[in-house]
Design brief:
The chain contains ten helices and 18 strands. The chain is of the alpha+beta class. The strands form five sheets. It has a seven-stranded mixed β-sheet. The protein has a four-stranded antiparallel β-sheet with strand order 7-12-9-10. A hairpin with an 8-residue loop joins β17 (354-360) and β18. α8 crosses α9.
């Protein structure tokens, strides 16, 4: 037994003995549900930024060659050579080296093994940040202007049966997820899917929801419904060197299939996608919309000009950001500075939820709120895996 988590030590379902079912998930899905594919040349084109506003998931191969991580994270051996002695926290009572985690992932019989998800990148783990960079089509990220939100990056390392339960990334963020070693099986459902009518649940913090069990219990049922035309579903097997794009609002579940799967992900909001997601963002995340509007007016007035007027956007006096005359200043990317806002990051002990809050410093008015991001990056699709974006 590793740590005190009942969920991550349970073998009640005996899923480790059902290897053939998980091996079958390495078979590419049929054409009817298969994900769209974008060529490397399309992804590298000058107008590829339009892909960041795509409303459908897609996969692209051959785009990670410039990353140091594509060499250091290429295999278990190269990964451990570079980072085997780095320590990572799996839970409040479990800290291991990467070498110890690799052995744990290989040998555990748990139905829902611990999933190594790094999101703080502190101390020696900061070196991981030098191993990758956002692909050019996704590099113009409005999310980064919001205080505290630049941490919406995730580095994943997971063994068999680890993954993410069905979820949609928060704050209407999209995400990209790139695999350098191993493989992942993805299942996507569009935002308009009536989950209740399908008997599906989504990730709930604290609930005992097992990603591997979801793929054994729910995926075959959804595949039958999709074959009958009763549900729309998109699937893909993502292999090393491939990148998956997760559009805002899409539900997704993710399962690691290799002996050890390594990936990196980031949640983002692209300028080209903002008009499409703005009504939903405003309706569901009014506080965040107010903060984003406020920051864009100072950092990206070109983008802010295309948004509805502040009063009609629910950002009137009651929720307007703090006055510009206050003395405190929060620095933002590109030299942009916004008075009064400060932020913090609140991480959970397990899973990959990233809590971010915004509130004015003492003396300012304004709004205050919180949010969670996951694998996607919110948690695997940016946003979020084991608890919540890819």
């Amino acid at each position: 037994m590793l740590g005190s988590s009942i969920q991550h030590n349970s073998t009640a379902r005996g899923l480790a003995s059902r290897e053939s079912e998980f091996e079958a998930l390495l078979t590419d899905p049929g054409a009817a549900t298969s994900i769209s594919r974008v060529s490397a040349s399309e992804f590298a084109a000058d107008d590829a930024t339009a892909l960041a506003a795509c409303a459908e998931p897609f996969l692209v191969a051959g785009t990670l060659t410039g990353w140091r991580g594509s060499e250091r994270w290429l295999s278990v051996e190269t990964l451990l050579d570079a980072y085997g002695d780095l320590t990572f926290s799996l839970a409040h009572d479990v800290t291991v080296t990467l070498r110890e985690y690799a052995e744990y992932a290989r040998s555990t019989g748990a139905d829902c093994p611990y999933y190594l998800v790094e999101r703080r990148f502190e101390d020696g783990r900061a070196a991981l940040l030098d191993d990758f960079a956002p692909p050019p089509p996704f590099s113009d990220d409005l999310f980064r202007y919001v205080p505290g939100s630049r941490s919406a990056r995730y580095w994943f390392c997971g063994g068999p049966r680890s993954g993410t339960f069905l979820h949609a990334d928060p704050l209407c963020t999209a995400a990209w997820n790139a695999v350098t070693c191993g493989a992942k099986r993805w299942c996507f459902l569009p935002p308009e899917t009536d989950l209740a009518s399908l008997g599906l649940d989504v990730f709930r913090d604290g609930a005992r929801q097992i990603a591997s069990a979801w793929f054994v219990d729910e995926l075959p049922r959804l595949q039958l419904l999709a074959a009958e035309g009763r549900v729309r579903m998109v699937e893909v097997v993502q292999r090393a060197g491939e990148l998956v794009y997760i559009p805002a609002g899409w539900y997704h579940a993710v399962l690691n299939l290799g002996p050890l799967t390594v990936a990196v992900s980031q949640n983002f909001v692209a300028p080209a996608a903002l008009p499409r997601i703005w009504p939903t963002l405003l309706a569901r995340e009014a506080t965040f919309a107010a903060v984003l509007t406020d920051m864009l007016e100072h950092c990206r007035p070109d983008v802010a000009a295309a948004l509805p007027a502040r009063e009609s956007a629910g950002c009137g006096k009651a929720s307007r950001g703090p006055s510009h005359g206050a003395s405190a200043v929060h620095s933002q990317p590109g030299g942009c500075q916004r008075p009064n806002w400060h932020a913090g990051v609140e991480s959970k002990e397990e899973g990959i939820s990233l809590g971010v809050w915004w509130r004015p410093v003492e003396g300012g008015g304004g709004v205050e709120g919180s949010a969670a991001a996951a694998e996607g990056g919110g948690a695997e699709g940016g946003g979020g895996e084991s608890a919540r974006s890819v």
